[in-house]
Specification:
It is a single chain. It is built from 2 helices and 5 strands; from the N terminus they run αβββαββ. The chain is an alpha+beta fold. It has a single domain, classed as HIT family, subunit A (2-Layer Sandwich). Strands 1-2-3-5-4 form a 5-stranded antiparallel β-sheet, covered by helices on one side. Strand 1 and strand 2 form a beta hairpin. The longest helix is centred in the middle third of the chain and has 22 residues. It is globular, with a radius of gyration of 13 Å. The chain starts with a helix and ends in a 9-residue tail after the last strand.
Length: about 110
């Protein structure tokens, strides 16, 4: 069980920005920009690289639509969506999550 599962189960508090039946979005505790929200599926999927089948694809699509909703709720038109897949890519919690980052100019390359 990851920390994100505990947040989904309301065992750990989080600053929730958006929630529906399949997705939860909450503020990152270590933000890198004025807006930094994590969007996670309620179904445990480890990362993009481990997703399988139409059901996981549909859930990932719902997460991306939730990223759009978060940006709208946060009042930002320009934003970045990042999903790290694996430890070498910077993933530290092994539950699929998308970072919605914005509210300032974002440079490239990011890493």
């Amino acid at each position: 069980m990851t920390i994100f599962t505990k947040i989904i189960n309301k065992e750990i508090p989080a600053d929730i920005v958006y929630e529906d039946d399949d997705v939860l979005a909450f503020r990152d505790i270590n933000p890198v920009a004025p807006t930094h929200v994590l969007v996670i599926p309620k179904k445990p999927i480890v990362n993009v690289g481990s997703a399988e089948g139409a059901e996981d694809g549909a859930i990932m699509g719902k997460c991306l639509l939730a990223c759009q909703k978060v940006a709208e709720l946060e009042g930002i038109d320009d934003f970045r969506v990042v999903a790290n897949s694996g430890a070498k890519a910077g993933q530290s919690v092994f539950h699929l999550h998308f970072h919605v980052i914005g509210g300032r100019n974002l440079g490239w390359p990011p890493g």
